Amino acid sequence: MPALIIASTSPGAGKTAVAAGLAAHLGRDGRKVFLAKAWSASASGDRDMAAFRALLPHTPEGFEPDRAGHGIAQVRQLASRIQTAARGAAVSIIEGNSGDHASNMALAEALDGLVILVVKMGDDIVPQAKQYRARLLGTVINNVPRYKSHALEAELNPALSQAGVRLLGAIPEDRRLIAPSLALVAEHLGAQVTVAPENAGRLIDNFLIGGLVLDWGPTYFGAQENVGVVVRGDRPDVQLAALQTDTVRAMVLTKGVSPIEYVHYEAAQRGIPVAVSPFDTHETALKLESLLPKVQFDHPEKLMRMADLIEARMDLAAVNQAVAQPATR
Q1: Which of 25, 60, 86, 223 is the most exposed place for a label (fewest CB within 10 A)?
Q2: By three-state DSSP, how is residue 169 classified?
Q3: In the CATH hierarchy, which top-level class contains the domain 3-174+297-323?
Q4: pLDDT the model gives residue 1
Q5: Using alpha carbons only, what angle is made at residue 10 by residues 6 and 12, rounded to the nearest 5 degrees?
Q6: Are 41 and 170 in contact, with CB atoms under 8 Å apart?
Q7: Is 83 helix (H, G, I), strand (E, B) or coil?
Q8: Which residues, 6+ apart, have CB-to-CB distance to 264 below 8 Å?
Q9: Could you report how far apart the first and last alpha carbons of the chain are, in Å?
Q10: For the chain, what are the domain ranges?
Q11: Residue 95 in 3-state DSSP?
């Protein structure tokens, strides 16, 4: 059974998203894909496995990340557990470690698999990539800012090619992949969702402050996609203006003021979830700035977006060829 180990040069590079996106892509033609996280030193690994199970139905219930260690004997035992759990799958995708290339390499050897190294712009790629030698399928540069695309094409890609490191793809930064849900926003703020709580799982790509709006309300609130509006609870006029647009997905009312009956009715009719924050608008906005570290890759819309980006931006011919035959060479 072919195996791909998704490693990364540093934490936060996006290996969880790449692993899940690849699994979703490879499973779109009906193939059964085994997806798992190899190691975890904390509950974060359990959260990743829970997200994998929620997003991809073939992810098994019985497999958990290893906490026993990274020695040769432990890696072999881990590989044996993976092979047993993945029995019947067409391909295994295993999320490895960040920066621990020796352990990732040992696991690739034990599984006779290949490694995809996920990196961020600015990481020292070549020395780390070369540690995988013939086991390296290639690198994926994730979350590439738009203004860095020229440097990627003109400088980084030629440097990788000259070093013999294949660039499998470059995934652009995308707000959907770091978007929180209103449920997460409410939890972070200690807020209560009082309207349409069944839609609190919606993702919010952009936040707009409903303060002193000089433009016509629907024009201002319609300037961005998938908007979460933060607005004073005692400004129903601004709240109603926001509700007139098709881009608003959620509202956060501040100062602990619940929506008046008419706003409640309009939001409920449109299925717009509303949370009531105990803080004023300025404090609420400041607290939202610290939300990003809590955002996880755990939503079906994120999986769909990542799979689409992978299909558009990665050399999938190379990936499909790699999983079609044993990696031993």
Answers
A1: 223
A2: strand
A3: alpha beta
A4: 67
A5: 85
A6: no
A7: helix
A8: 194, 195, 258, 274
A9: 15
A10: 3-174+297-323, 180-294
A11: strand
CATH architecture, domain defined by 180-294: 3-Layer(aba) Sandwich (3.40)
Residue with tokens 């919606």: 202
pLDDT tens digits, one per residue of 49-103: 888 888 886 676 778 888 766 778 889 999 999 999 998 889 999 999 998 899 9
- Tell me how far CA of residue 107 lies from CA of 53, 68, 74, 75, 303, in angstroms: 22, 14, 10, 6, 26
Tokens of 63: 């497999």
272: its two tokens:
């717009």
**Which tokens hold the place of 118?**
């996920």
| Predicted confidence (pLDDT) at residue 172 exceeds the cutoff of 80 | yes
> What tokens were used for 14?
């996006």
Q: What ranges make up the beta strands (E) of the chain? A: 3-8, 33-37, 91-98, 114-120, 136-144, 167-172, 192-195, 206-210, 227-232, 248-254, 274-276
Pairing of strands 136-144, 167-172: parallel
pLDDT of residue 200: 97
Give one DSSP letter per residue of 251-287, joined into a string: EEEETTPPPPHHHHHHHHHHT--EEE-SS-HHHHHHH
Average pLDDT of the chain is 90
User: At how many degrees (to 10) do helices 101-111 and 72-85 cross?
Assistant: 50
Confidence class for position 154, pLDDT limits 50, 70, 90: confident
**Torsion of Cα atoms, 7 then 9 then 10 then 16, to 10°:** -30
Q: Residue 167 carries which side chain, given as an amino acid letter?
A: L
Tokens of 1: 């059974």
For residue 214, the model assigns a pLDDT of: 52
pLDDT one-digit tens code per residue, 92-110? 999 999 988 999 999 999 9
Question: Residue range 285-308: average pLDDT?
Answer: 94
Domain 3-174+297-323 identical in fold to domain 180-294: no
CA distance 7 to 121: 15
